[in-house]
Specification:
The complex is a heterodimer.
Chain A lengths: L1 E8 L4 H14 L3 E7 L8 E9 L14 E4 L19 E5 L4 E3 L6 E4 L1 H9 L5 H12 L4 H11 L2 H15 L8 H8 L1
Parallel strand pairs in A: 1-4, 4-5, 5-7
Antiparallel strand pairs in A: 1-3, 2-3, 6-7
Chain B lengths: L2 E4 H11 L4 E4 L6 H12 L6 E4 L3 H13 L4 E5 L1 H16 L5 E6 L13 H5 L6 E4 L3 H18 L3 E6 L7 E4 L4 H7 L23 H33 L7 E5 L5 E5 L4 H10 L7 E5 L1 E3 L3 H7 L5 E6 L10 H9 L7 E6 L10 H11 L8 E2 L13
Parallel strand pairs in B: 2-3, 2-4, 4-5, 5-7, 6-7, 10-11, 10-13, 13-14, 14-15
Antiparallel strand pairs in B: 1-8, 6-12, 9-11
Helix pairs in contact in B: 1-2, 1-6, 3-4, 6-8, 9-12
The chains are: A alpha/beta, B alpha/beta.
């Protein structure tokens, strides 16, 4: 079972990101589960959402405590206690930031990509979730990028959908395809 | 084909498939997405239904009551404080034996304020005279909701479908929705035969004097007890339609030969099952999923407990000053067994505290370990956070 935890701030589309990722996995024929850890939701407050993906039906409904991947929508959250808690030894971190970079100096590789900047360019809103998902799917090759585009097409249409599609392509181009394939395969096998 | 759906969205679509003619609701977390979803289906012209936005839960239940008595298939939903505000009307609905269905998106009660999941709200109206069915998964919530209309209408009793807030309502997962044909075939058009009709005027709910009140209560109690048959039959017949069943009154799972049993209500079951299966070094358990809490299936429960030495009753609420709510009822039911298991009673996961995989081991340790506990306890309480006197 693959377990992913998404950290962000209220208003950044954490839950939507979790739902999109799980939907894309389910539409691809796998089992998946996504749910939020609701706090007192308000814009700006640290929030988390969870995704599980498996080949078998998923029975557990506890929060994800030992994820293989963290997706972090605001780099400042890396300093907030709890964000890195339980990340597996082989786990990796994808984070929004000013520019694309790879930090493999620590135990867990951290890849930064400019999700908010790309979102501003393509959809005119500082919402990093879709760009981060596109990068995450590209890094892990958990599913074809088209699965994310299909999941987006279920939620949006017209110019909004077209802009999101361009955003997905731009975001995917900022990271190395398949770089985290082994991490993803290692835990889902 | 399984669709990727949030539990609440799936429930909204399921309720629409049941073709309610009147839905009255007041939004409250974590029920909101359900009634929002229904309102959108009505606004989009996909459901021909009168959606009544009311000013309170008391009114939501009152409108649903009135609509059902006037001959409509009616539905409402609430949670937590909303259930409490409805309480007066919930007793009326049941006492008048009015068939309608509501979803309780289970949530803790104030105070202190807490928006998260436990089951104190539906337990608070345990004695209202409603049928209460608890769902372990979102798929069960879908299938139970369809069955609930059939049960309500055949028994002429209201049915509360209890769905853990957030844990189920806000979880997206692959879910099978029945087709309109399947639901239509299962739920034929219905007219409440005690309903109000200008062509045949009568009164409902008027003063009942001491000469008859006990008989009214007795008949209501008997009707609920009889409903056990209909609950099992509805599940059986729906399974013939969709190929899935929810366990009838209760379902025995896990290791049938185990001497240790764990009884649960609601969505914690899957986590416990995973925890047991993931660690072969842990003692095995037979799980009893109590689906029908009202009516309370004492006979089925005794059968499910045969061969057990120890039974843990795990609940998501408590009766402060006494202990558990479900536990003592289970113990009473099991007294009639020749060799009843020793019953241990714990609450856990109050106010949304995460029910982790470790819960299984802490339950097992609490009843089989050297530090065996006696009496009721909130098993995941952290007493170090409390002043000495409260530990």
């Amino acid at each position: 079972m693959l377990e992913i935890r998404i950290h962000g701030r209220g208003g950044q589309g954490n839950v939507v990101a979790a739902y999109l990722l799980a939907s894309a996995a389910i539409d691809g024929g796998r089992y998946a589960q996504a749910f939020p850890a609701f706090g007192a939701e308000r814009r700006g407050a640290p929030v988390a959402a969870f995704v599980r993906i498996d080949e078998q039906p998923i029975r557990r409904r506890c929060q994800v405590r030992e994820p293989s991947f963290l997706i972090v929508q605001d780099p400042a959250l890396l300093e907030v206690p709890g964000t890195l808690a339980g990340l597996q030894a082989h786990g990796t971190i994808l984070v929004d930031g000013a520019e694309a970079k790879i930090d493999d100096s620590g135990d867990n590789e951290i890849i930064t990509m400019p999700a908010t900047r790309l979102a501003m360019e393509h959809i005119g809103r500082p919402v990093p979730n879709t760009a981060l998902l596109a990068a995450f799917i590209t890094l892990t090759e958990l599913m074809p990028l088209s699965a994310l585009l299909d999941a987006l097409a279920e939620r949006f249409k017209g110019p909004v959908l077209e802009n999101n599609q361009k955003l997905v392509e731009a975001a995917a181009a900022t990271v190395e395809a398949g770089r985290w394939r082994e991490v993803a395969n290692g835990v889902s096998a | 084909m399984a669709l990727a759906l949030e539990g609440s969205q799936a429930l909204a679509r399921t309720i629409a498939l049941c073709r309610p003619q009147v839905v009255a609701a007041y939004p409250i977390t974590p029920q909101t997405h359900i009634v929002e979803g229904i309102a959108k289906l009505v606004a989009d012209g996909k459901l021909d239904c009168e959606m009544v936005s009311v000013e309170s839960e008391h009114s939501a239940a009152s409108v649903a009551l009135g609509a059902a008595v006037a001959g409509s298939r009616a539905y409402t939903a609430s949670a937590s404080q909303g259930i409490l505000l409805m309480a007066e009307v919930l007793f009326d609905i049941a006492g008048l034996r009015v068939p309608l269905v509501m979803t309780c998106a289970n949530r803790a009660l104030s105070g202190p304020l807490n928006i998260w999941n436990d089951q104190q709200d539906s337990m608070a109206v345990r004695d209202a005279g409603w049928i209460q069915l608890y769902c372990a998964t979102n798929q069960e919530a879908i299938d139970t909701t369809v069955q609930a209309f059939r049960i309500a209408e055949r028994c002429e009793l209201p049915v509360m479908v209890c769905v853990d807030g957030f844990t189920l309502t806000h979880t997206l997962e692959p879910l099978d929705l029945p087709s309109a044909e399947q639901v239509d075939g299962f739920l034929p058009a219905y007219r409440f035969h005690h309903g109000l009709d200008p062509a045949d005027p009568r009164s409902l709910g008027t003063l009942v004097a001491p000469e008859h009140f006990s008989e009214v209560r007795h008949a209501h109690h008997q009707a609920l007890m009889r409903a056990q048959t209909e609950i099992e039959q509805a599940d059986h017949e729906w399974a013939a339609v969709v190929g899935r069943h929810c366990g009838g009154l209760l379902e025995v799972r896990g290791d049938a030969g185990a001497r240790l049993g764990i009884l649960t209500l609601g969505s914690v079951l899957g986590t416990l099952e995973d925890a047991m299966d993931n660690d072969p070094s842990l003692p095995r358990a037979r799980f009893i999923k109590l689906r029908s809490y009202r009516p309370f299936p004492a006979q089925a429960l005794r059968k499910a407990c045969e061969g057990l030495d120890t039974l843990i009753v795990l609940e998501r609420a408590l009766s402060p000053g006494a202990g558990g709510i479900v536990g003592p009822e289970v113990q009473t039911a099991l007294i009639e067994m020749e060799a009843p298991p020793r019953v241990h009673n714990f609450a856990a996961g109050l106010g949304g505290r995460d029910l982790t995989l470790d819960l299984y081991k802490s339950l097992v340790d609490a009843v089989l370990g050297e530090k065996r506990r006696h009496g009721f306890a909130i098993i995941d309480v952290d007493t170090t956070l409390l002043p000495e006197a409260d530990r």
